[in-house]
Design goal:
Distance between the termini: 24 Å
Mean pLDDT: 90
CATH topology of the largest domain: Neuraminidase
Largest sheet: 10 strands, antiparallel
CATH class of the largest domain: Mainly Beta
CATH architecture of the largest domain: 6 Propeller
Strand content: 25-35%
Shape: globular
Oligomer: single chain
CATH superfamily of the largest domain: TolB, C-terminal domain
Low-confidence stretches: 1-33, 757-761
């Protein structure tokens, strides 16, 4: 046997346990898919398929809560056998499976009864309805099949404005009559779970499709379902399917249809698990194509599915890009030149590559094969010859992808149905492909399973995370501590945050394909709808100030009141937090521009965004994305204004970072530009917490006082300019667009601000062929959110404001008559001219004040909001959600966090912060209760009854006696209401850190197998040790870096385990000698007293063989011993290739017939075999003589197997090695035979 020193053993064996965490990105290549056999289980969802001629609808971006019933969770084995591991039942459905990082459990969403639905809550064009019973998150342990339900339909709707949630009174209370939908779970590296939930009872501000859509927000909970809390305060439409990157960030799809954006805007964002550091990730500007369903390859690259919504069932094409370039280089490619073909994607990620270029993401059938990419004609060989489409990619070992693929058309658009181009309908199956190579054709896919009776969806490889990524789990990112140390202007426990940026000049707001007056996305126009948000023509010199605006969610109060009580061009209830001059003439930033940096204090947990203003206080560009900050967060690293394609500008080198910079506290006062026509307007400070503008309250009085004398028909005369601003008769508007709710509108408002269809209201026709105004041009008078480009603003300012002249673009002589367009030109080439004089006319005796002008301009810039409560009630329509109504619950912060209390192991005080933007907090409602007595306070007593807190402030609650968390856990409930009656509640359980630790054979890494007495075992978890440290002496220590492992066996005997190695996420230990067979408990304690626990099943024999790359599969860890008549040599069978950063095989030369070549393998868990004859081995399917199987003797827990290699293996190449000991099968490894 081979002798090695202990140090060599650590280098050779422990390298198997801890392989490098960095794998270099592979170059893209085009090659046929040559893949080894699958040797791991696959979890997937099996959904019923109704045949070739009937569509089964699958969840996708617009229908994420509508699986069809009868979808079970399956476990598919490498030999093709499978089992149902969670039966959904005839009415239920499973979706969204996610594998734990140890490979031992699966979390998923379960819909218990889809057939118990609400017919008034249809959620797609096919009349499918939301379930009254919702969905919840479950977890199944694969070895034991134990199922645990983690969420239980918890509901936390807004309780203000008189809302009553008594679901026993069907349709008579504000009960939404549908369930809570908890979906999309994903494991976090610390054992918690991120998921999406509708529990706050919000609905999207722009209700596309039908009435059933719900707002899905990002939530996080402990692995046992405790400590549920939202981190997605900015998810006002929906967040979907979070995925945890190797670097610890969460990436998720977001329905980002804010402002003027098209309703089909689905893109990817990233965020940290504590809710900080939100950022753009991919998909911005990609027209109407959803970026949804993504994964990360083992080499770190990202693979995403692109598809057109609804008509493709979530099927499209796959693209790939590096996760990062470096910390300062741009992540996105420059916006293309306007001469680039209009089907180009602006703001693509650097390294963007289509890996399935033969198919399409667009809204038509997959191309014919062979044939052109766009195939809207019949295929010569029929629809079955179409190349199909992809969805639901998932990473697998060796940079492979598991994908769901549907051959054929993979489209069901009605137009193509009628042409006969879509059948046979979808037949989704599971396939494999290389993720790091580009496919030429679907023939290169490797089929895993496609049963025509079912759709096989959501395939997931059941392997430890390390087998794919080389590390045991994603990085556990640090959690922000709201401890007052990030910035002295944010005290401990604050409910506020700081936001700033280094420049408004360094920006990526330029629209690809320009800014035509009449926009149409089919012509490639994207400004304000998909990408870019420039309001007219301007230069860097025009940038003067920043407007910060906050937005509210919309509570679903449609029962019993059916009509929304407000609307605007954006369907947003916008509040202006402030307008801040940013231009600092004479101060130059590091990019050579005038410094336009800023820093402001704002409310946390509140959706907000930015608008850049000129010296007239008019919007130059708008960030049409929702943002929010966590309490105590300081966000200053944006590097510019949506500067995604430019190098970041360091905030620390700007004027706003200097100690003497005076930040604006936008939580307490509202600064507004005092526009007066001067070059440098000042600021008027308001003591109000916000400002806003609404038609009836603010605009109608101006029209009546300053405009109606001329702009009124009085039922007799023609008003000036044929514009009647005094007509407040009610006009019924129905189905004007997805954004305009049905209701009764004043005729003057409808003329100005109801868009698109000329039949929808009295607004004048346009000079387009059909007379309609193309979004974002709402009417002749208003361009949505762009006062600079609105005729109404031009007239009240007395000049054209968009940076153009009338001569820059031609115009028809009659703006309502296409026949008057100059000869040879299209209406797309034209715009409106500024003509006439300022309004009111100078000789009218009436003058608009600058304040009145700014009210109208701000009204246009925030979307022309109107409260419909009064007009709708006048005709008997009951409404909910008035524009000026408070629908934003208070911000509430609580320290210590769970992590902070666990580390301290005691509770002695709470610091609480509270703030409410709209109505302000009600200090008397602050409540802090616990489920156990403390001092003289019995359990359930409000220990904050005498506390005093102000809006935006904090209060310290000192406990009369500290609470020992090691002895027992405590659950604390903190809540407060605002003046409107909305309640925010934090329910937090503090306990000693008792996280889950999973132990597996250090050789096989099998997540479902027992381990043997005296075997080497690897435990995985979080906070297992405070540092990484290997053992350096014999006998092995039982305490290492302050960490110990206790194994309590089936007889109740506790033994300290010998330790090989400890680290925060992994411990290698030996099952102590003498441990009885049967179930055993594992208790790990680190140097700070944190606990982790788990269980193992101990057997007498459970063989495992070490692999060179520590995966339990792949190339064997071992060597050969060549015996000749006169000598013996030892030769390597693997080597580490630094160029590829992986182990590669060294082919075994069996030599002449006189040589005897022994394969020496290392393993664990087989030393107590009954007899040598009970050990069977096969190499390449050929029986090999076992000459030794037992303890290696030199190293603790290590076993060895010697095999005499048959000469019939010569020339076989890479072959499997299988081993059975006393009937127990070891993991399969591989060797290469020359």
């Amino acid at each position: 046997m081979l002798k090695k020193s202990l140090l060599v053993f650590f280098c050779a064996i422990y390298a198997f346990f801890l392989i490098p965490s960095y794998l270099p990105q592979q170059s893209f290549t085009t090659a046929a898919q040559s893949l080894p056999p699958v040797n791991y289980d696959i979890v997937y969802v099996r959904a019923i398929r109704s045949g070739d001629n009937q569509i089964n609808f699958l969840p996708e971006a617009l229908t994420p809560l509508l699986p069809e019933p009868g979808a079970d969770l399956m476990l598919l084995h490498p030999d093709g056998s499978e089992e149902v591991i969670f039966a959904a039942g005839a009415n239920g459905a499973v979706m969204d499976p996610y594998i734990s990082y140890d490979g031992r459990s699966v979390t998923f969403a379960y819909f218990p009864n889809l057939k118990n639905s609400n017919s008034q809550r249809r959620a797609d064009y096919n009349s499918r309805e939301l379930s009254r019973e919702g969905a919840d998150i479950y977890r199944i342990d694969l070895p034991t099949r134990k199922v645990t339900r983690l969420t239980h339909q918890e509901s936390s709707p807004n309780t203000g404005n008189g809302a009553i949630y008594d679901c026993s009174k069907q349709f008579q209370s504000n009960c939404p009559e549908v369930g809570v939908f908890n979906t999309g779970p994903a494991f976090l590296p610390d054992g918690r779970i991120v998921y999406t939930s509708t529990r706050d009872n919000y609905i999207p501000n722009k209700p596309k499709v039908h009435t059933g859509l719900r707002t899905m927000q990002l939530w996080v909970m402990d692995g046992d379902g405790k400590n549920q809390h939202t981190i997605g305060h900015f998810n006002l439409a929906s967040a979907m399917h979070p995925f945890v990157l190797k670097d610890g960030r969460i990436v998720f799809s977001t329905w980002e249809n804010m402002g003027s954006r098209d309703d089909r805007s689905f893109m990817l964002w990233s965020i940290w698990p504590d809710g900080t550091n939100f950022d753009t990730f991919s998909g911005f500007g990609d027209a109407d194509i959803a970026h949804h369903f993504m994964t990360q390859l083992g080499n770190g690259d990202i693979v995403v599915n692109r598809y057109y919504n609804l008509n493709n069932n979530g099927f499209g094409e796959l693209y790939r890009f590096p996760v990062n370039t470096n910390s300062t280089a741009p992540l996105f490619q420059p916006i293309p030149d306007d001469k680039t073909p209009d089907d180009e994607i602006p703001m693509k990620r650097v390294g963007y590559t289509r890996i399935t270029p033969f198919t399409t993401a667009d809204d038509y059938p997959a191309p014919c094969f062979p044939g052109a990419l766009v195939s809207q004609d019949p295929c010569p060989n029929g629809n079955a010859s179409r190349v199909g489409k992809f969805t639901l990619p998932s990473a697998a070992p060796n940079n492979e992808l598991l994908v769901t693929y549907a051959p054929g058309s993979a489209n069901h658009k009605i137009y193509y149905n009628r042409l006969g181009l879509t059948q046979p309908y979808y037949d989704a199956g599971i396939y494999r492909m290389h993720g790091d190579k580009v496919m030429n054709a679907p023939s290169e896919l490797v089929l895993i399973k496609n049963d025509p009776r079912y759709h096989e969806l959501w395939p997931r490889a059941v392997v430890p995370y390390q087998q794919i990524y080389g590390v045991t789990a994603p990085a556990d990112l640090p959690k922000m501590a709201n401890d007052g140390k990030a910035d002295s202007r944010l005290p401990e426990g604050t409910p506020l945050a700081l936001v700033g940026s280094s420049s408004l000049i360094s920006r990526d707001t330029r629209p690809f394909q320009g800014d035509p007056f009449f926009q149409h996305w089919n012509n490639g126009n994207r400004n304000w709808t998909f990408q870019g948000a420039d309001a007219g023509v301007y230069s860097d010199n025009d940038i003067y100030a920043l407007r910060v605006i906050a937005m509210q969610p919309t509570s679903d109060l449609r029962y019993p009141d059916n009509y929304r009580g407000y609307t605007s061009n954006f369907n947003e209830r916008i509040r202006i937090l402030g307008e801040i001059p940013v231009r600092k003439e004479g101060v130059i930033d590091s990019q050579g521009n005038v410094d336009t940096s800023f820093l402001a204090k704002i409310p946390s947990d509140t959706p907000f965004t930015f608008q850049t203003l000129d010296r007239n206080g008019l919007v130059l560009n708008s960030a049409q994305t929702w943002h929010s900050l966590q309490p105590g967060e300081v966000r200053i690293n944006c590097g510019g204004c949506h500067a995604h394609t430019k190098p970041l500008l360091d905030f620390s080198k700007t004027a706003a970072a200097k100690p003497d910079y005076q930040i604006r506290d936008l939580s307490q006062t509202t600064p507004l530009l005092r526009v007066d026509g001067s070059a440098n307007p000042g600021v008027a400070e308001s003591a109000e917490r916000f400002a806003t503008v609404e038609y009836f309250r603010d605009i109608k009085p101006i029209f009546q006082a300053k405009c109606a004398s001329c702009h009124s028909s009085n039922g007799i005369t023609i008003p000036a300019g044929n514009l009647d601003l005094a007509d407040n008769s009610l006009v019924e508007i129905r189905r004007a667009s997805d954004q305009i709710p049905d209701g009764y509108y004043p005729a003057a408002y409808a003329t100005l601000a109801i868009h698109k269809d000329p039949m929808a209201g009295p607004s004048p026709r346009s000079f387009s062929p059909l007379g309609d105004w193309y979004w974002p041009q709402v009417t002749k008078y208003i361009r949505a959110g762009q006062a600079r480009q609105s005729l109404l603003a031009w007239k009240i300012f007395g000049r054209r404001l968009d940076g153009r002249t009338n001569a820059d673009r031609p115009s028809p002589t009659d703006p309502s008559n296409p026949a008057t367009i100059p000869g040879g030109l299209s209406f797309y080439d034209c715009d409106l001219d500024y003509t006439g004089e300022q309004m009111p006319p100078p000789n009218s005796g009436l003058t608009l004040t600058w304040d009145e002008r700014m009210k109208i301009a701000r009204w246009i810039d925030i979307g022309c909001p109107i409260d419909l409560t009064t007009p709708n009630m006048a005709v008997g329509w009951k409404t909910y959600a008035a524009f000026l109504e408070d629908d934003l619950r208070p911000t509430l912060s609580l320290i210590p966090s769970v992590a902070e209390a666990t580390k301290a192991r005691r509770l002695s005080r709470f610091v609480i912060g509270a703030y409410d933007l709209e109505s302000g907090i009600n200090p008397a409602t602050l409540s802090v209760t616990m489920d156990r007595a403390v001092g003289n306070f019995p359990a359930g007593t409000n220990i904050a009854a005498n506390a005093t807190i102000i809006n935006g402030g904090t209060v310290v609650i000192n406990l009369p006696t500290s609470i020992d968390l090691v002895a027992a856990a405590v659950t604390v409930a903190v809540e407060i209401r605002d003046q409107a009656g909305h309640t925010t509640r934090i329910l937090r359980t503090y306990s000693r850190d008792n996280t889950n630790a999973v132990s597996v054979s250090a050789a096989s890494y099998s997540p479902q197998a027992p381990v043997a007495t005296e075997a080497i075992v690897s435990a995985f978890g979080t906070n297992l040790a405070m540092e990484s440290l290997p053992a350096s002496s014999l006998p092995l220590p039982t305490t290492l870096a302050g960490t110990s492992v206790i194994v309590k066996d089936n007889t109740g005997t506790e033994r300290l385990a010998p330790l090989f190695f400890v680290s925060p996420s992994q411990i290698n230990y030996q099952v102590p000698p003498g441990t009885a067979t049967g179930p055993a408990s594992i208790i790990i304690t680190n140097s700070e007293g944190f606990f982790a626990s788990g269980t193992i099943q101990v057997g007498r024999i459970m063989p495992g063989l070490f692999a060179a790359d520590a995966t339990g599969r792949g190339l064997a860890a071992g060597q050969i011993q060549r015996a000749r008549s006169n000598n013996s040599t030892v030769e390597a069978i693997v080597r580490f290739d630094s160029a590829q950063n992986k182990f590669v095989s060294v082919p075994i030369d069996l030599g002449p017939a006189t040589d005897q070549v022994y394969l020496i393998l290392y393993g664990t868990g087989l030393r107590f075999r009954s007899a040598l004859t009970a050990v069977k081995a096969n190499v390449g399917g050929i029986a090999a003589e076992v000459t030794y199987a037992g303890a290696q003797n030199d190293y603790v827990g290590l076993d060895q197997v010697n095999l005499l290699l048959p000469r019939t293996l010569i020339g076989r190449g890479e072959v499997d090695v299988s081993l059975t000991v006393d009937g127990q099968v070891a993991n399969t490894i591989r060797v290469n035979i020359r």
